[in-house]
Each structure stands twice: as structure tokens, then as C-alpha cells.
Amino acid sequence: MIPRVKRIASSDPCCLPPPRGRPLRAPARRRLVAALKALADPTRLEIFRAVALRPEPVCVCEITARFRVSQPTISYHLKVLRRAGLVTVSRRGVWAYYAPGPGGLASLRALLDEAPKEASGPAP
Asked: How many angstroms separate the CA atoms of 106 and 101, rounded?
């Protein structure tokens, strides 16, 4: 719930309350929160960047070698990124390859771009 802002009697525009808009729809809010929570960890952010900046899928062995954390920790971070829809995994033999999720980075950008538009749109 958004707290109410008391209106201060002033002609100065900096004292006006922010414009009111409707909140994000629940599905968009859930996706955005999941993605932002996933990227809030510095290691996950860097793992996501390593995957998103590559034109081809990245082998988990390359990801593990790049970071100073254990393989189980990398696996956990990749699981969080998968659940948030930011990366996908494919198997080739014993190796797992990670790529940006269908629209992983694009969907995150779209959600961030959509937030101000949807919040300022007319209420249903």
C-alpha cells in the first residue's frame, strides 16, 4: 500500500504530492519483483551479465571458473536466475549451458519501461 502524502499549502511545485497512478498489475509486479530480487545479489548480477553479454550459451564450467565461490553456490545462483526467467539451461552431455531466458534481458527492460507507463495509465 502506498502511504498517503499530506499536501502542503504552497505554490512551489516541489511541494506538490507525486502524481497518483494505479499500481502495476499483479503478474507484471510478480515478474519484476522476482527479476529484481534475483539481480539484487552481486554474484547473481555478474553471472547474469556474463550470460547475457555472450552471443552463444555459456558452459557452467566457464561460469564457475570466473567466480571465487564454490560450484554448489554457482548452481544455486543459476537456479535463482532460472526461476526468475532470466536464464535458460540446456544440456549437452554432462555439461549445462546457460543462455538469456526468452526475452530475459529484454523482458526486464520492458518491465522497467512499462512500470511508469502502466502506473500513470487510467484505472480500470
From this structure: 9
